[in-house]
Amino acid sequence: MITFEDVKRNEELKTYITKADESLIALGYTEHSFAHVMKVATTAEYILSTLGYPQKDIELAQIACYLHDIGNLINREDHAQSGAILAFRILKDMNASPDEIATVVTAIGNHDESTAFAVNSVAAALILADKTDVRRTRVRNADTSNFDIHDRVNYSVKKSTVRINDDKTEISLSLTIDPKFYSALEYFEIFLGRMILCRKAAEKLGLKFRMNINNQQIL
After folding, report:
1. Cα(16)–Cα(83) distance, rounded to whole angstroms?
2. Is the pTM here over 0.85, yes or no?
3. In whole angstroms, what is the distance from residue 148 CA to residue 16 CA?
4. Domain-wise residue ranges, the chain
């Protein structure tokens, strides 16, 4: 079985993640480098381990999370599909089994909003972990007066927490937001589609999705 540690040690993959993020820097996007992919992998591990999924599924979810944005190396457009193809070739070279490759590639190819679907538990965990990574440190623009809508929304988030309740029936995204930068209209303009996707991914895992902003339940 290929492990998450195997993938993290792969220097080729480190290069692709770095170079993909450099392209997004040029395009003016928020951070999509190692801080993001590791945060996503950690959240996916928490989700699946809390729900009692096998260790193999957890490892494959972490691998999918680590690799999910490498398609940006080619182009932001359709990066889920191009990233899945890149991951297929690399994992095959690393002697991953066909079943492992299929699970990871399917999750990567189904994670982006325009074409996303929680086709299996690994894809569902990736979607939830990726779309809930909202935080101030992802903003790279140092000039607050020059923020675009994505900068303002992400910068407004002072704290972000993903938690599954004790009964394992609900998963919640709780945000502490600075009202100086926060606009409800702008937030939902960007994130409503993502939150609906999170709801569907949560349902795949047998959960209800909730969102709280400054201790008020929104979804």
Report:
1. 10
2. yes
3. 27
4. 4-217
CB 3 within 8 A of CB 60: no
CB < 8 Å & 24+ apart, contacts of 189-197: 189/149, 190/149, 190/150, 190/153, 191/134, 191/153, 193/113, 194/113, 194/131, 195/131, 195/219, 197/113, 197/116, 197/127, 197/131
Q: What CATH class does 4-217 carry?
A: mainly alpha
Q: What is the pLDDT of residues 13-36, one digit of tens each?
A: 999 999 999 999 999 888 899 999
